[in-house]
Design a protein that fits this description.
alpha+beta, about 25% helix, ten-stranded mixed beta sheet
């Protein structure tokens, strides 16, 4: 019999991110490493690429008087078919979605919420669906494929989020705020004093030498800012929240802002977020996506989902409304 001995005990760590939400990084991994990206990079925006190191935020950087958090939720209440002049019925989705804004100025409060619904389809003859409990205005999508219907829903949600932010700032014109958008900033880069907050990583945008700086970050530190271009351009930086030591990418988030901003303003935003966001990291016993799902965002998401209404009730109402529609006309073979 051959006895195999181990030179050192095998240990493991558990990622605090709830597996029900997928992974905090891409599932397309090779040995635990994030996939490489083909993004165009300018790594010398803040300091030369060869001199990259973890950065502590400037303690003298001025902080905004108010931090705003913008987020939205969406839900498909039912899948529908539109029967019209075309012999083939057109697919669609009846969806509910909501956008909300949290204002933090020492106290966190929900500043505004908008709840909307829609029946998204490529069928041009589609009409609004009115049920006992809700109305779903017809909204055209580019095609009836599942991805295109989902994209049309997401675009409408993004438009709703932007309008919510613009209305709030029109009512509060002092300009002493920072807006944090949950998710990529695409489609919202025109908003002033705004950053996108990305908590799920699908690719490593940095070369290995600079990616090592991400791995070396301590809580409350960030990487230098850099410019990246994929299908669109933006400035970005990585930030380490308080997380679980030893778990790859745990507590790492990426921030991004408009590529049109001058470097000094980008660096100021990077320092502000590095000072402001770590204290707002969530705890595993309170949030299954801790620490990346910030406390104000998690609370807002719960409120928005509540305001969408009961999905089963809306589904039954849609079924009941469909039963009263004129029966689709059958064409002769």
């Amino acid at each position: 019999m051959t006895t195999v001995t181990s030179a050192a005990p095998v240990t493991f760590t558990v990622d605090p991110w709830d597996p029900g939400y997928g992974l905090a990084f891409s599932e397309d991994l090779d040995g635990g490493a994030l996939g490489e990206s083909s993004a165009e990079l300018n790594l010398d925006l803040e300091i030369p690429a060869a001199q990259w190191h973890p950065i502590d935020p400037n303690p003298a950087s001025r902080l905004p008087g108010t931090v705003l958090f913008l987020d939205g939720v969406r839900r498909i209440d039912a899948r529908v078919w539109v029967h019209g002049a075309n012999p083939q019925p057109g697919p669609g989705i009846a969806a509910s979605f909501a956008a909300g804004l949290v204002s933090c100025d020492g106290v966190a409060r929900i500043a505004n919420v908008t709840v909307e619904r829609g029946m998204f389809t490529a069928a041009a003859e589609a009409t609004d669906i009115t049920t006992r409990h809700a109305r779903y205005p017809a909204r055209l999508a580019s095609s009836g494929g599942p991805d295109q219907l989902s994209l049309a829903l997401q675009q409408r949600l993004t438009e709703t989020e932007v309008q919510l932010a613009l209305i709030f700032r029109a009512q509060n014109p002092a300009g002493d705020d920072l807006l944090v958008v949950d998710g990529p900033l695409r489609g919202r880069t025109h908003l002033d004093r705004t950053v996108g907050y990305i908590k799920t990583h699908h690719a490593s945008y940095l070369p290995s030498e600079q990616a090592a700086t991400v791995a070396a970050l301590m809580p409350g530190q960030r990487t230098p800012a850099f410019t990246m271009g994929t299908s669109w351009r933006r400035n970005s930086w990585y930030l380490q929240l308080p997380g679980t030591p030893g778990v790859p990418w745990s507590g790492i988030v990426r921030l991004e802002c408009s590529a049109d901003l001058p470097p000094a303003q980008v660096i100021r935003l990077a320092d502000q977020t590095t000072r402001l966001l770590p204290p707002l990291a969530s705890s595993p016993h309170k949030d299954p996506r801790a620490p990346q799902n910030l406390v104000p965002i998690g609370g807002l998401e719960r409120e928005l989902r509540h305001r969408l209404g009961d999905q089963q009730l809306l589904y039954r109402s849609l079924r009941a409304a469909a039963a009263t529609w004129p029966a689709p006309t059958k064409t002769s073979p």
